[in-house]
Structure prediction request, 286 residues.
Amino acid sequence: MNNLEQDALFGGVEHAAAKPLGKEARQQRVLITVKAAPNPSAHHGETVCVAGIRLDDYGTKDWVRLYPINFRDLDGEHQFRKYSLVTVACRPAEQDQRRESWKPNIATMKVGEVLASGTRKRRDIVEPLATDTMCGLYNAARADNKARSLGLARPAIVTDFEVEPHPGWTSDEQAKIDAYVNQPELFNDKRKTPLEAPKYRGFYRWKCRETGCKGHRSMNLDWEFVAHQRTLAREGHSPAETIGLLKRRWLEEMCAVDRFTAFYLGNQAKRAHTFSVLGVYWPKLT
Prediction:
């Protein structure tokens, strides 16, 4: 089934229109669906790509990216989990051409209810959006760098989850981390700790539901993948055991036949046609 057939099946979804011009802040109500692993940043030390589904009073849904956010630097009042409902004032991200990208004012963020896994409330918001294909997003972005940059795609088949050693930060990335950690702040005495590179990278081998798909190899940028490998390291597993346990969870469990598996997909601002897996949606089938 291709993306057009799926749109017909699910009734179609209105996706994000072009961002408005200007710097006016707008209140957004968002169901957080993506927290990507943090990366070094020259201006913020480290940043997390946070994305979700924007809701309005009538239930209309589209995608939104909230960036930049230094999640470890947030106080408890503003920290949020995946599938939290948040409200936050945002303005259009001027340095990012992607239509879904907005710059949040974290001081205005209010964190509300967390929609639990498998609940009808979460499913009714998320699953109607699972109409994309990786091929469709990729081809649209190649034709127009302002095409949609976020999506949710159900794989036709997942053949492997490849785990390989992470190469570590580049010298440029390490310089950004060092500059941030060593930068004094007048009104904040909280100790800054350097961002550690994960031990492993993971890649999904899969085919999307686009007719004629030849297959994809997509890096998994989900923060939960990094957290999972660090938990396994604390438990004392060997490298071989760690790789096996990562594959068991991210392939065998998340992509099992009894799961509604879908990949949250997002591209890069500087490489619009390069999409990665930002997270996995995988409730049990009902």
